[in-house]
């Protein structure tokens, strides 16, 4: 689907992308994470052909992206960028859909769009001005518009920024469902680790101009457990290091054990450690 090979980009004396290599398969969500200034926006801008890399190539379905004509390319690639105007306040939700459908040369009355309006829970507000929408409703409408053309590749920059918990969970669930069903390849950037954890995604770390595959299990403490037990008729919980068998034997002799399970480290804590390695 999308393949990036040996991508390099410098701005004056600063080398932002040194030798970027990664790929995304259809139906796969890849979260590209990194500190501010790591080059995430540069990667997105290169894929959107807003800037051209100094070296390397970006292939969509095995074809260099610069061999596509604009209309052809942007019928296959869509984006929802946090810094861009994605919907127009003075239009109703439906008028926004009609406007962008016209640009994409698709029928605004097709069944998929009707299904998405229902899925994003926008039926009641679809004929109201977007300026009256909540932040969550605006974001849902923008996502609907980004998805309605069934792009092969979708770029999402902070798609849940500013949303309340309920709206955020709703958007994550919808994304997971549609992307797998429609087999859309997704590149997502976010600083919200709760979102990254809930998305069915692969994580890439962008640091020092290159990307690294991230596997959370590499950073887990395999001998750290949470023990829930009853002591003097009161539930308690301990964090204990050791083998499961030794911990069980130790607590079994003294207390009523409720549960022994591996203690997982928080993703944000691990990523902070990764970002600051060798600094």
Task: Tell me what you see in this structure.
The chain contains nine helices and 13 strands. The two termini are 34 Å apart. The chain is of the alpha/beta class. The strands form three sheets. It has a six-stranded mixed sheet with strand order 6-7-8-3-9-10. It has two domains: 2-214, Rossmann fold (3-Layer(aba) Sandwich); 224-263. β7, α6 and β8 (185-189) form a beta-alpha-beta unit. It comes from Oribacterium parvum ACB1. Residues 2-233 form the ABC transporter domain. This is ABC transporter domain-containing protein. Keywords: ATP-binding, Nucleotide-binding, Transport.
List keywords for this structure.
279 residues; 33% helix; transport; nucleotide-binding; four-stranded antiparallel beta sheet; Rossmann fold; P-loop_NTPase; six-stranded mixed beta sheet; alpha/beta; ATP-binding; ATP hydrolysis activity; 9 helices
Query: CATH superfamily of the largest domain, called what?
Result: P-loop containing nucleotide triphosphate hydrolases
Number of domains: 2
Query: Helix and strand succession?
Result: EEEHEEHEHHHEHEHEEEEHEH
Distance between the termini: 34 Å
Count of beta strands = 13
Strand order of the largest sheet: 6-7-8-3-9-10
* Sheet with the most strands, sense and barrel status: 6 strands, mixed
Low-pLDDT ranges: none
Q: Cα-atom Rg, whole angstroms?
A: 23 Å
What is the helical fraction, as a range of percent?
A: 25-40%
Number of helices: 9
CATH class of the largest domain: Alpha Beta
Topology-level CATH name of the largest domain: Rossmann fold
Which structural class do you get from the secondary structure elements? alpha/beta
